[in-house]
What we know:
This protein is α+β, with helices and mostly antiparallel strands and 203 residues long. Helix content is 36%, strand content 24%. It has helices at 2-6, 22-32, 47-56, 69-77, 85-97, 138-150, 169-180, and strands at 36-39, 60-63, 100-106, 111-113, 116-118, 123-127, 130-135, 156-161, 185-190, 198-202. Strands 7-6-3-10-8-9 form a six-stranded mixed sheet, with helices on both faces. The two termini are 21 Å apart.
Amino acid sequence: EALFRGAGATVVDGGPSANPSTAELLAAIRSTGADEIVLLPNDSNVRAVDLAAADKADARVHVIPTRSLVQGLAAISVADPDHAFSEDVAVMEAAARGTRWGEVTTAVRDSQTEAGLCRTGDALGLIEGAVAVIGSDHEQVVRDLLKLLLSAGGELVTVLLGEQCALGSGQRLASYLEAEHPGVEAQVLVGGQRHYPYLLGVE
């Protein structure tokens, strides 16, 4: 929330199992007093609500279909209120679309996944919603996930550290990226998100 507010956004509370309502989004839209607004869902489950709010709003509202927080951060990082609205939207959409994203979480039950069988408590690495890596150590899964994400290239890696991260893991990941991917710029930020110890973005 602080990262988005710091970039100039109005934040509507939400998250897994706590998606905002159309009414909450409309209230946030009106609170800005702006005539032109971009909505960043940052979650596939929120997009429909965003579209409904955009349709009912009195202002000119465009929804950029960001599916993760890191895509939303990529989009807002290139926003420029001095540009024409349509130009700004195009640049933000391109930034979001150009960001591959991953997340690391913990398996809550035994399950068959795209990457094989996982057991309760395993560390799961997902790329754009699909399980790609299964392991016992979250930090190793992050490294394996970054290797996969960077196999298609990339200039900037963003890592959002969740509230469950081990002490010092951010510095260890930064050191790993510097040693193994020296041509890639890395930014490691404290996101404090629940459920996902690590969120990753590659641009």
